[in-house]
Amino acid sequence: MILGIGTDICDISRIEKSIDKFGQRFIDKTFTQNEQDYCESKSGKASYYAKRFAAKEAVAKALATSSSGALSWLDVEVKNDPSGRPQALLYRGAQDRLEAKTPNGYKAYVHLSLSDDHPYAVAYAMIEARSD
């Protein structure tokens, strides 16, 4: 069963401008150390940051309820598995929301797809529950 879906589009230049204007303060507030290490190792790092920014928004939308508030940026971490497939790791508030949305006897899976075509980055998240 589908528990939630979310999508987000992000202008890569907006992230680049935020990095230029606020520097490490913006990066530390928005991205985990693992995400920073990954993005900083890439050429054209702004597009990698933008995809992760969009992913965090998409996952937050998929987790949202009519009464939920904002999540911390650091509650969702985007990581790539060895094949390059993006994965969303959930912490603190995001994990709590996932557990609250998941029916008893089911296990939740977060599916994530990222793409970019300058000047935009886009993310799509779907949360699925499967019975054990």
Explained architecture:
With 132 residues, the chain is α+β, with helices and mostly antiparallel strands. It has one domain (2-131): Alpha-Beta Complex (Ribosomal Protein L22, Chain A), CATH 3.90.470. Helix content is 42%, strand content 33%. The protein has 5 helices and 5 strands; from the N terminus they run βααααββαββ. It has a 3-stranded antiparallel β-sheet. A two-stranded antiparallel sheet has the order 2-3. A hairpin with a 2-residue loop joins strand 4 (106-117) and strand 5 (120-131). The mean pLDDT is 95.
CATH architecture: Alpha-Beta Complex
Binned strand content: 25-35%
The profile of the biggest β sheet is:
3 strands, antiparallel
According to CATH, the fold-level topology is: Ribosomal Protein L22, Chain A
Structural class assignment = alpha+beta
